[in-house]
Amino acid sequence: MTLEVVAGKDATIHFDASRCIHSRGCVLSHPDVFVPNVQGAWIHPDAQPVEELLHIAKNCPSGAIRVLRNAPTAGQVPNAEAAPLVNTVRVRESGPLAIEAELQINGVAQPSPRATLCRCGHSVNKPYCDGSHAAAGFSATGEPVTAVFEALAARAGVLDVQPVRNGPLRLVGNLEVVSGTGRTCNKLTEAYLCRCGHSRNKPYCDGSHTAAGFTAD
Asked: Is 43 helix (H, G, I), strand (E, B) or coil?
């Protein structure tokens, strides 16, 4: 079981270990809430105010951490955060694709607007990143070439991620491709992004998955 749900007095923390990429931002910023290397309970929602817990969840790049208010009052948002104003996929240097959007996977709405998706081809939890790129020695730039693009009619809305069997990630919806340093590299409404690790045009697919014999659901 990868999902832990821990209720506190004012908020409940949901932690999905299968989505965690071990960025350790939660432990480093709040070791009182997420206590490492202990036996038994290690998540303590009452260690910080709800607003701070919500901030922790928003800074989790993989969506592994979600925080819900136990009894939201008028004007308070019960979930960790609303969908972003701009849908983005950030290309991490020699790492995964970090997506923030009103997210769907194969048409199924996701509980978090954030996810980190594998682009090295080695994750055992595809389409999600599980950190395998480090052990695999995956190397790929986080600074793609800037494409020629036009402004989108809308920058938000539903973004549907459709993993193609034995092929790339098809993303349908408003999307801005952003480099690791924050540069906008492209704007589009449909994209095919490499997830086999072999494309010569990363982060985009160039068909190399076929010659590489890449297999994935």
From this structure: strand
